[in-house]
């Protein structure tokens, strides 16, 4: 597979965190405006191999200090969507945790408005469709996350299409978040949950029973046949993030990366960046790494993008339109 071709082919991305994906140039500009110590920005890109997920998440401590005002959030959302559009990502779901952006006094409606306005500005300028997912954080009490969801839904922001739970999975599994997923479903939010990123296959099963249509990372599914069968039965889409999964030691190395294992068993997978800046990656780079290490071809790349589109939290009209775009663009290569 050739970089130029992979770059220009239309792509779908479902698992991309705003706070981990703001382009470095944008972060530098934000740092200059608030006289922030720019040498700290060197800590944002995580090591190629972290000790574990907690070690990886330390990178966000710096970024979040630059995402606490309306202007910072709007510009960051715009720049992240722009970066995706420039590598021909035609559909993007951008997820973020509003409660992490309140340190300077912004209200939840202001936070939602800032991110939404940045996204809309990008969509006006580029050929990309972007929707937003709200992340609750596992380390926050259910009461705080329920207040978050309630206030978010009161904004009536139509770009908000889904709900996710992120944060330290080993310490806080899915068995306590039922009230949150129930509330989200009542408000017609579709659900994807970070699960199985840290060797916890039972979290994947729990997530599906809680109503998750997609699973963020889901790596531990490879260790549990019952979880695999459930994913196939329910048509659950696994949001794989290869570079991130290896960085956090969810997967030891490329030799045991479970992409083909999942696909051969009938599990639908898609490919994502997770955190473009923290993992120093792009969706183009992820596909090229899969080609280099696993030998995927353009036909597999097409399948993975169609899987992503099938699992996207968007309208049937957008899915039909982009399905045609993908079919026509990939035809010369498959």
Describe this structure in words.
By secondary structure, the chain is an alpha/beta fold. It has one domain (3-333): Metal-dependent hydrolases (TIM Barrel), CATH 3.20.20. The chain has 15 helices and eight strands. The protein has helices at residues 3-8, 24-33, 53-57, 60-63, 70-86, 108-125, 142-154, 178-186, 201-209, 225-234, 242-247, 259-264, 283-294, 298-311, 316-330, and strands spanning 11-17, 89-96, 129-137, 160-166, 190-195, 214-217, 237-240, 268-271. Strand 3, helix 7 and strand 4 form a beta-alpha-beta unit. Helix 7 packs parallel to helix 8 (178-186), helix 9 (201-209) runs parallel beside helix 10 (225-234) and helix 14 (298-311) packs antiparallel against helix 15. The longest helix has 18 residues, at 108-125. The protein is globular. The termini are close together. The model has no long low-confidence stretch (mean pLDDT 95).
